[in-house]
Amino acid sequence: MQLASGFILSTQCYDSAKGISIVVWILSKQGPVKLISTPQKAVFFINESQIDAANRVFSEHGIFCEMKPVALKSFMQEQVVSCYFSSLKHYYNAAKRLKAQHIKVYEDDIRPIDRFLMERFIKGAVWAQGRQIKSHPYPVLTDTKFKKNSDFTPQFSSLSLDIECNGEGVLFSIGLVGANIDTVLMIGQPQDTSELEFNLHWCVDEIDLLNQLCIHIETVDPDVIIGWNVIEFDFSVLHARAEALGVELPLGRNKEKMQLRQGNFTRLTIPGRVVVDGIDTLKNATYHYDSFSLANVASIELGEEKLINTDNRLEEIIRQFNEDKLSLANYNRQDCILVMRLFEKLKLLDFAVVRSQLTGLELERMGGSVAAFTNLYLPLLHRSGYVAPNLGDHGLSFDSPGGYVMSSQPGLYKNILVLDYKSLYPSIMRTFCIDPLGLIEGLKSPDNAIEGFNQAHFSRTAHHLPELIRELSVTRQIAKDKKQPMLSQAIKIIMNSLYGVLGSKGCRFYDPRLSSSITLRGHEIMQTTKQWIEEWGYEVIYGDTDSTFVKLDDDLNSLNCNEIGTVLARKINKRWQRVLQQDYRIDSFLEIEYETHYSPFFMPTIRGKTTGSKKRYVGKVEKDGTSKLVFKGMETVRSDWTELAHKFQIELFEILFSENYSQELIIQAFDRYVKKLYAGEFDSLLVYRKRLGRHLADYQKNIPPHAKAAKQYLAENPHFAFQRGQIIEYVYTTQGVEYYMGKHNYDYLVYVNKQLLPIVRVIVNDLVCNNPFQPNGQIILI
Prior knowledge:
This is DNA polymerase. This protein is an alpha+beta fold. It contains 21 helices and 30 strands. The protein folds into four domains: 147 residues, CATH 2.40.50.590; 202 residues, Ribonuclease H-like superfamily/Ribonuclease H (Nucleotidyltransferase, domain 5, 2-Layer Sandwich), CATH 3.30.420.10; 209 residues, Palm domain of DNA polymerase; 132 residues, Orthogonal Bundle (Topoisomerase I, Chain A, domain 4). The strands form eight sheets. A six-stranded mixed β-sheet has the order 13-12-11-10-14-17, sandwiched between helices. It has a five-stranded mixed beta barrel with strand order 1-2-3-9-8. Strand 10 and strand 11 form a beta hairpin. The longest helix is centred in the C-terminal third of the chain and has 27 residues. It is globular, with a radius of gyration of 31 Å.
């Protein structure tokens, strides 16, 4: 028997003569290895009381199923039996037929390959032992047994891929850039390429292009293929063109065929390789951009631009293919390079690996918080004697509330402290044992359980999430100590997603008693924290989800404030330990931290009202001898306000927070900005940017400005194209709203009323502008 150890690249599951075969490609230290399991069976569960009805269905439809008693029950306390299938075809047909007869089926939506790995607690890497049947070009082990492997970190070879095509998906070229290749495959007659820094391979037609792609990938032999929207676009187009042209795409190792299935999301399998998308990985790593387009992210992160920057990029790509193929090749290659540099700088592959090691999700499986939760929780649940529920099994219809947001006291303050609960919701779940299994077991024995909300009770001993959160917390602290930022960030994301998953109606474990016991406990904790702080002689002016804002005396310096913040945090944590032992007989894992000292701090009113706003404030912080303005929810951090508004708001708050502040200085700044605006000095700052949330044709009534500008431009330029999700740049002119094209006759009064005055009114609440620009150049403010 041969032993192998490596990181999972791809997985497949198919029917064979002996049963269901599980095929796993791994990357070992010696290179790729193909692993084929012993014959497996797929399984789901039904209630024991419905065995006879199920057997009648199986008999009627010729479905072979082996039923076995199992020590498991449903959340409704009904005993279940396991239904085993030696054929995937019978497995899926059985689930469909049983549901048609209103026979409840449990866990039939768990893919057999996912169940195979999760029940063995395999996450990312694996130990394997099997009989070697082939050694070249890649070793193949059969009759393989699998075990989890927590100690293997892969070293991938990667390739950046990008395609160019027309609007119908007809291919022009394919760029391939990596450690061992720098090539563009281009359809067309050979031209002189002596001045190019890369290899340009000419192809006769699309069929030749696709064949050359397979040849080049086989030659370079990458473990990972990266790109930008590469699964949903590039490989989807390649798959569609291959099918249309009757061409196979043996892009996998051993020349195995690529498989692509589209549904709620596109599932791509290239045997022996993995495809990782940059956009999905960025989103899962919680990066935020106004636009996730390659042009925008590369500009922000790399300071580099795409080689085609026209508004209608597709039109220029088509023109270059017809008239200037060398320029198109340069453009195609540059996109590959930008993707590769972004992956390297932001360590996106590192993040994907760590996420897979923590959750068991495939490297390319982004999103999937619910799937990650299921991977982690389901095997533990089975070992506690339960099968997972189906959506809605709880039968409850009420919704749980969101996070607690306290009414604010608006005004300008000298000293504000922010005390922040560290990972509040995971800490609540750990402290109060909030857990799907814990809820079911707690309801069975409420007298010895921890009381939640909405008649929820949670077992003190039968649960899994509290221990999982503890393990993640310990691992994250170790990662911080060892300066492993990717691991720390991945754990933080997983911990923060636990509540989101339990609060999602798309999760099988959703139960409003679970989610409300988290959020309402959060409300109680925030209100109690406010009460204690006020008992100790301080004023709380605002609170939001897990943060409490405390006002201190104006005559205190930063050292005094820091000391008070540290003392308050220590007192609150100690009091929670005492209170929770007394009231619930539980240990407190709540931890509040002194986070920030703002000096000064401004909390605005709600526009047009005297009451304080929520989730909107500005403060100044001192760090390492320098001061910095922090904006929350204000115009300067919102993408739907212009750069003019951003610039103006920053200047106003610098004035407001200065020692010689006066309302007159605010008015003078407003006066100065209006004059410069009308003089044309701010013309480059007047562009609005907003994403098309729908297809342009779908905007029929109450058309918003950005869609109106795009529609008007399209009417005048019918060759142009706008895509759903595209960022539209528009401006207000004397002719109304227009698509931004560089130079316009701007309607400056619109910008005064929509961009400058609202910001002034945040500070000078009763400011009214009447005919703001007079012929004599004076601003009249009443």
